[in-house]
Amino acid sequence: MKYSGLLFANLFRKKVRLTLTIGSFAAALFLFTFLAVVKSAFSRGVEVASADRLDVINRTSIIQPLPIAYRDKMLTIPGIKAITHDNWFGGIYQDEKNFFPQFAIDIENQRQVFPEMVLPDDQWQTFLKDRQGAIAGARTAKRFGWKIGDRIPLKTSFYGWPSSWEFNLDGIYHSTRPGGDESQFWLQYKYFDESMPADQKGLAGWYIIRLDNPDDAARVARAVDTMFANSNYETKTETESAFAAGWVKQFGNIEFLILTIGSVVFFTLLLVTGNTMAIAVRERTAELAVLKAVGFSDRAVLVMVLAESILVSVVGGGLGLLFAALAVPVIASALNGLLPDLVVSYATLLAGVGFALGVGALSGLIPAIGAMRLRVVDALRRV
Q1: pLDDT at 210 over 80
Q2: Are 83 and 222 within one domain?
Q3: Which of 66, 137, 198, 214 could in theory staple to 182 by disulfide, Cβ–Cβ 3.0 to 4.6 A?
Q4: 69 and 20 co-located in one domain
Q5: pTM (2 decimals)?
Q6: Are 186 and 311 members of one domain?
């Protein structure tokens, strides 16, 4: 700390250059944080996926249905604890931008297959007795300011229905898993199926199987697909994590894109900061020679130059992380649920700090070594 006055004097020698360098770090760390948050959002479904669940979809495409009769047939396979099914509803609440997932669920088996999605029993019983009842996830209810007893209007033409549907909000569920999905909206399958066209009745969108033992996943998946092979409705069965990963891949290779952009940002920032520190050291060649002449050691000179670079990176990085922490919730709100929940976690912030420190240390290392090796005689000769 005894050299702090000298350190700050050197930093503020060129205020415009210092401001631009700090601004570059802030912009880079904001981009780094935002990309990390987006990657985390898309991979969260894989991370929280249950090891004891399988998803069964039509082999052709998830938009193609499967017969309801498949449920009883699959229950004959050893190792299956429970099976439920979902259908996509595709309703619009007030505005098309207000997207959230809506499913017509099998009320008899939903809770057995998804035990982590919990709500009070009295709310569930009210839902079971209410033909027009609905259950909303806590995140969606909070987003729209819904409360128990509200009437929720939804419009959909997904199945050729031009009319508006209205549901009674009978319950709000929470997930017991950190990062679990609290965005869904459930309605009763029987009510949904009554309004389907004749040729679409008695069909499930997809099945979800809960296993007795996660180790049986591969065996049960093969058994299910073999059972319906060469039928009119062939199946594709995979673990919940594999299904979630496949769903994310439909948006493109998010991880590769983020790594590519992150690498470009890293090397660009490294070059910019390294060049800035090299110029700063070159401008102070005579001063460094004087410092060495009056007794400053090579190590002290090395530390001072490195400290300048790291301090700039920490200040700029800190500003970028602070801006990201403030801006990401605003961006998430503006997206209206079009992307998974965007959350700036402590792990992301720590990674950002590490990124800033790493760039600061690396960019200042070569100029610092050059300053350390500077000979007094050679330096004074350049003046």
Answers
A1: yes
A2: yes
A3: 137
A4: no
A5: 0.67
A6: no
